[in-house]
């Protein structure tokens, strides 16, 4: 039978009278010369920013923390752009295709509240203590035991997550050019490596600002064209609710398919506690990938505003990420077939690519492709720039070669960038085994971020917590999350969706807290004098603010900006969710 054509793009051929499938089981985007030109122009800009940023790198602080000199609006956009990688774009569109509106929880419950908490409560400690990384804060608070556990686990997590971004970046080149996937992955890695090695964090941050606008310019037209094709917002609602599980797909609460709990009350608890509290606060408040952007600012106030500024666009990103995934599951035969039968040639990770192929004409297709490339490069660059800082300062300088020159550690950082990129090439293919990338990522976050958050939050507000409790809680919290993962994989417990990650995160948090309290009761805490700037009760309030904080205009006051953002996100949960 003849191929089915949509918007001038060949989707595939029908088999035995069934739904259209891709010929030879592959996905190819029919890009025209104008699309390739747009992509090439973008790469020129990216490498140009790397070359310009190199001129500002004269010390390790310049390379790793941009000399602590950037304005809050730049770091705020970079803060959110660093998160607009595979997690946000492909992962959330995959979740939108598979689960529908409950995916909004990853933004309005699982991100914004934690970002505001980071800005209002935790950034003064990070910035005021003048640490160069989150693991360094752990070393000052708990000593080398917890520091080494945190630094090693963070380094491992970053090369694994960088592999996710790299795999999807290579996938775009694969479907665009038809290159073998391994060639596409290597080429993509070389591009990101080039500008990070040249300009360090400044190159990453300024590229992330550029990438934020490119991503929005790419995904907004895709969303609008997709909605037009399906009959607008009302058409989307009618088609979603007309399906067998349409009510659960259209309403974000109770989100049973997402959480894996059939009981509505348990589902809400799992989402609010597992995702909204443990996983979310664990990721946003302790993840150096994000915190590093705020540490690159020029003052405590600017550092506090960084995540708060990022929270405003974060609220509205799901409308151009989740909604296209939902549309793809309705109008793209391959994704609709996957959703109806549970198997097929496509995966949910390809929902956005298939939608681009189905609805975008040439020109707009090039913009969309550029946006995806920008997203994956932003995500990978953020992981690599955070990795090279932690490796150089927290592992190499602390445990391998102390008291060397600043230039020596700058060289180590550049070599660590190369090493992390090479490792990410291999970890990229681990990510390829997951149909929905969010399953993989949430598993990693439950392992590494949930216990870290428990240790941080307890240690920051309870001065009695001891150094021994710091590393014991971290180790056994992580092990408990791995046990839950293994029990679910071996079907000892049965949780669908990403529910096992929510449960694992909750268990890791509780185990960490309980063990930390028990161990602290039988071990010796640090003297109070050593906890100034690290524990809330021991730190003078003046040390947590800039001298001119009271004279700032209203639009530069972190607490007020956070309050306005909180009101907006609550309204979105009520009126849209």
UniProtKB/TrEMBL annotation:
GO terms for molecular function: D-glucose:sodium symporter activity. Keywords: Membrane, Transmembrane, Transmembrane helix. It is found in: Membrane. It comes from the Bacteria. InterPro entries: Na/Glc_symporter_sf, Na/solute_symporter. CDD domains: SLC5sbd_u2. It holds the Pfam family SSF. The keyword NAD does not apply. The chain crosses the membrane at residues 36-53, 73-94, 106-127, 148-173, 179-198, 210-230, 264-284, 364-387, 407-431, 443-462, 468-487, 499-522, 554-576. It is a multi-pass membrane protein. One of its GO terms (cellular component) is plasma membrane. Belongs to the sodium:solute symporter (SSF) (TC 2.A.21) family. NCBIfam families: sss (TIGR00813). This is Na+/galactose cotransporter.
